[in-house]
Fold this sequence. Notes:
Elements: E1 2-10, E2 14-23, E3 26-30, E4 42-45, E5 50-53, E6 60-64, E7 71-75, H1 79-104, H2 106-139, H3 146-181, H4 190-200
Antiparallel strand pairs: 1-2, 1-7, 2-3, 3-4, 5-6, 6-7
Helix pairs in contact: 1-2, 2-3
Pfam family, one: PH
Protein name: Pleckstrin homology domain-containing family A member 8
Subcellular location: Golgi apparatus, trans-Golgi network membrane; Membrane
Amino acid sequence: MQGTLCKWTNYMSGWQQRWVVLDGSTLAYYLAATEVHQGCRGSFKVTSCDIHVHPTDHLRFDIVMPGGRQVLYLKASSTVERQQWVVALGTSKQEEEGNIGKLLGPSLDQQVAVRSKMAELQANCQLLFSQVSNMRSAAFSPSPDTESMQEVATLISHTCDKFLKILSECMLLSTASVRGVGTVPATPTDHSRLVVVQLAS
Length: 201
């Protein structure tokens, strides 16, 4: 995925347009699409980052590096475009972590998959909170914008569908992971009961 997004630079320059490219699990940004051949101004591995949707600004989403050492602040041109980027980033993160898990073995593969799904759930949950906030603002404004409300309602519906799908997948993975570990017997075996009786007598 690629396109023009606004990136926060500093308090002097504010938001500036940048050409952003998501290639596999790597997110890179350039000054412009025509300057890609000159090299990127910054790049990040999506798997090591968290994706946060801003709770009040319906165009903004942040990419947080491990430990919060660095944050990439980005803005889309519309709520639809922001949702496309958030979903694409979450999918890329999930696929890459799934590939890593396969190299580590079945049990670790499941653990990585569960963590990946949880991160995707968190991103969609933040997106849903933001969209609901936008709907409230539109509904309670002095002159409600019906067209805007319909657009947000459609986004909320899509986000809910995505959230429920991921939640279902997460529950299946968690159940499979627990079964893989094994269960502790709820009651002593016949042999252990015999030992207990013998000790008691």
